[in-house]
Amino acid sequence: MTNTTPVSQHSAQIETTPTEKVALGWTHTARFLTTASELVHLQANELPEIAFVGRSNAGKSTAINTLAQQKRLAFASKTPGRTQHINLFELGPKDAADAWFADLPGYGYAAVARSAKLRWQKVMADYLEVRRSLSGVVLMVDSRLGMTDLDKQLLEFVTPRVSTGEIKLLVLLTKSDKLNRKDADAALFGTRAFLAENASAESDITVMLFSALKKQGVGKAAQILHAWVHPLPKTSAAEIADGAGQADGAA
Asked: What is the pLDDT averaged over residues 226-244?
């Protein structure tokens, strides 16, 4: 049996392996750095940058806060879709940060004006297509809905860079606690099959079930992000995610 160590969380404890504990210790260091409403206002960065994207109400802010074990690191607007800034967080020692997290605005909320939607579509497209320091993308997808047309549209912006291996992709199927075993397996299989259609030999794409409420996949997701910045020899993100599936019986 694998030894696990509980990591303190604001609402519960996350049972972790030693490697996951190290990763969660690292994500816990996340701290607000700056915010920008336009891509040109983002400062240049030589550190690996990991972007979090997803539809409004897909659980993006909750996932970031859960991974960081902080209550209000990422703020969710009271009106979904109204947050229109890119928020940056730095990780690692305060005097020697080693990575940035970028929290991009949620997309797809119907009440947002069309002009605002189009403007943010352009900002996000430019960010995903040209941001030089971007090394990984975490896409939050509501497991109950699967990949929507808007999720697929967003992926089109970053797919060329994922195909070359320049950018890694982690898809978190959020709110998985709302699904039974059969539906969870179907969501996982369907998302993997869709992403495989545009994958190449160089692509680094991982899909896993995630529940902030039940803490499913939290330790493994943190381990994957940590490994993106601090590579583990002979360990791929897919192997880490498969380990999560074996542990919780969901994959």
From this structure: 74
